[in-house]
Amino acid sequence: MTDQGPTAGPLRLGTRGSLLARTQSQLVADSITAATGRAVELVIVRTEGDDVSIPLDAPSRPGAFAAALRDALLDDRVDLAVHSFKDLPSAPLPGLSVAAIPPRADPRDALCSRDGLSLDALPRGARVGTSSPRRVAGLLRARSDLQIVPIRGNVDTRLRKVRDGDVDAVVLAAAGLQRLGREAAVTEFIDAGIVLPAPAQGALAVECRTGELGSQMAAIDDPATRLEVTAERSVLSGIGATCTTAVGALATWIGKDELKLTVEVSNHRGIVYSRISRAGRVTIAGEATQLGAAVCDQLAADMS
Ligand SMILES: NCc1[nH]cc(CCC(=O)O)c1CC(=O)O
């Protein structure tokens, strides 16, 4: 095997079958072709995370969205896989590497409500659809009167529930809405002070077999995004979070080489256990990890 990876024919890029997954995979495919001149074809891989017959409160299966794509990579059925980075488990998988992290989209969550209403303007007791403990926590902290309605399905299914009047609003990642060209549905980009985004929200991970394609994928890697996401995700391993823990983490540049990391851990009733911000000099991955570790230490001290 060479660093070039397969040399004959187009690169096979594995993607989940949802419109969002295919859209963001095509974006990555196009940028690989633009940067390297190599043809890239999408290969749809069905994943357990797409199975809506599995109840949301079933025991958590970390990485359900990513597992089948990773199997396809390890079995050499595809050469690359594109993941929403926030769906990727924090533990590395032997044999696979995140070869590229393209520039991140808007990391915030977005409110999509009927009649263009903002969060403040939603009527008392309004029904808001989300199944994310992190979003529930932030929403209830801001508006304890809201009625939270568990919801799942793809972006368009969720938006339809607002149009059909099943709920007054839904909360979705701004990045997904933007990539799908559904930005017009957004009635408020929710400030990170109200709902802190999930670690790595808005970022994509391009995974391939370790040792293959590294130099070609470097062409679409965004070092600043990589450092942000490294800091945010180091928190997940640091506090041993599962995907049902309400954990938010957002890293923002406050100066050249100076990263501020904010982390919040809360329960689903909106009672904040802890929210911590800390800034530090970050120019390499190790410093990003250290910043995350320092925040985790502070969180642990705070919560004991
Ligand atoms: N858990 C599903 C998921 N994974 C990634 C995104 C959006 C895109 C992104 O965060 O990059 C979504 C949908 C959502 O949260 O609204």
Write the layout of secondary structure elements.
Blueprint: E1 11-15, H1 19-36, E2 40-44, H2 64-74, E3 80-84, E4 96-100, E5 109-113, E6 127-129, H3 133-142, E7 147-149, H4 155-163, E8 169-173, H5 174-179, E9 188-189, E10 204-209, H6 214-217, H7 223-239, E11 246-255, E12 258-266, E13 272-281, H8 285-303
Parallel strand pairs: 1-2, 1-3, 6-7, 6-8
Antiparallel strand pairs: 3-10, 4-10, 5-8, 5-9, 11-12, 12-13
Helix pairs in contact: 7-8
The ligand NCc1[nH]cc(CCC(=O)O)c1CC(=O)O binds next to strand 8 and helix 5.
Give structural notes.
The chain has 304 residues and is an alpha/beta fold. It has helices at 19-36, 64-74, 133-142, 155-163, 174-179, 214-217, 223-239, 285-303, and strands spanning 11-15, 40-44, 80-84, 96-100, 109-113, 127-129, 147-149, 169-173, 188-189, 204-209, 246-255, 258-266, 272-281. It folds into 3 domains: 1-102 and 203-221, Periplasmic binding protein-like II (D-Maltodextrin-Binding Protein, domain 2, 3-Layer(aba) Sandwich); 109-189, 3-Layer(aba) Sandwich (D-Maltodextrin-Binding Protein, domain 2); 222-304, 2-Layer Sandwich (Double Stranded RNA Binding Domain). Helices cover 31% and strands 24% of the residues. Helix 7 runs parallel beside helix 8 (285-303). The model is unreliable at 54-60 (pLDDT under 50).
